[in-house]
Amino acid sequence: MTGFLRGVATALVTPFTEDGVNFATLGALLARQEQGGADAVVVLGTTGEPSTMAAEEKEAVIRFARAHCGKMKLVVGTGGNDTSAAVKMTRLAAELGADGILAVTPYYNKCTQRGLAAYYRTLCAAVPLPVIAYNVPARTGINLLPATMAELAEIPNMAGVKEASGDMAQVMETARRIRGKCDLYAGEDALALPILAAGGTAVISVVSNLFPAEVKRLADLVAKGDLKAANRLSDALLPLVGACFSEVNPIPVKAALALLGYDVGLPRAPLTEIEPPHLELLKTALLGFEAERKRCG
Q: Which of 91, 171, 261, 274 has its CA 20 to 30 A from that of 224?
């Protein structure tokens, strides 16, 4: 299927207190996204730290996001390395009102391409919702290859692939094989511009936690064919993108949100508080981007 996501979908952080999820801050973050023009939010994706959350917390976050995401589409991360558990989570998300599913490739198990195809076929059969495959080999140890994605593109509710392999040759080959069948989504902020220019329909973004309107504008500029303006905006964003990935996500973006005044808490162990040199890099990047925004109006 095509057309599920357009523009920007923010891979939202999960704010924590020492006792659990900080729902007051989660509400403020959802409001920031809606005010910034985000088209969708993704909860319980990598940026949301679901691997350290209890089942009750995950359910509560989905319920809260459904009630507070306004006109934005709600996409829920439900994938995992246990197909049975992923199916249960996918069905729960559907029951709680998700508009779509983001399913990361199974991690640690290192299944074959045949196993990947079976995994996604099972998830797609479990619910009628659009399902987005998420390819991020640096985290999972497995790469969703273009030929496999082409096979999955034939599934009626396979909405597309969030590509975060970092390999533009692979991205282009995947785009060629799935074009017109399902969509390509940029899964790395640093490659948002080239992936959008190659036919990507949306950015599933981490940096849009901070500046949703600007990432949305980048997607809109590419869609309109104004690559000159899109390049200028991308150039302004890239130092901030670099700072937001100076440590493993979501450590830096949570630190950045704290600098912007949001009580998101620290990442959960085994993730740690941002290192001082990277915090300084983040501060510099935020100030630089704010200055560039003012200069450009």
A: 171
